[in-house]
Amino acid sequence: MAESRVAFDLQIPSDVEYIEGVVELARQRCRELKLSPTKCSLNVPVALSEALSNAILRGNDKTGGKEVRVRAIITDTDLVFEIVDEGPGFDLDECEQDCTTAENLSKEEGRGLFLMRRLMDRVESFREGGNVVRLTLHRE
Amino acid sequence: MSFSIKKNAEVVVVDVEGQLIVGNRQELKQKVLDELEKGEKKFLIDFSQTGYIDSSGLGVLVSLSKKIREQGGELRLANLNDDLQTLFELTKLDTLFQISDTRERALESF
To 10 degrees, what angle do helices B25-37 and B55-70 make? Predict the structure, then answer.
């Protein structure tokens, strides 16, 4: 990664009620970086919300007492979010389904990872002090 | 974030104020299902005051659409801003819902 600085580094309880506050903080950083309005109001809020809810509901399996760490890192070219849960991790490729097929279109679930990948420039998952999902969005 | 419900002639109009996300989707679902249980058949969800919607919010709309249709009713959507329109197009949900650009047009469409 090129030269970088941490925009925020938070540890939140594993509860979906905390998602909106984190997303609002991320939106503020996007505006400060003068990202495009669409990136500030669509790409970042939706993709980050998806990653956080995955971490809380699937990674930490809705278990009380656990936490999710979320870091925003700014480089010369990118805005990067790292979401860390206490779960065993998962294979991104195995989890993604095409929610736009006729068969899947009317299903209630299965759009989270699809949206993350469409709205971010890169989505990665790896283990490093927990299960990490890294979202990368080019600033330009 | 909140949901307000009003009746316009025979149509139940729901305004989504703020976000429709994993933390509040059940509240919207329950409010609409309560109206459906009372016998209401025509529903309009207006997004003119909505910020963003996540996959759980989209899922609830899909689920409500199915339940309303099963009861012989109809669900229409109105006032998607550019971001929400993009979201519906990305997921192709714009093909699943009848979407109007204003509340008035949506109400006329029933």
Answer: 10
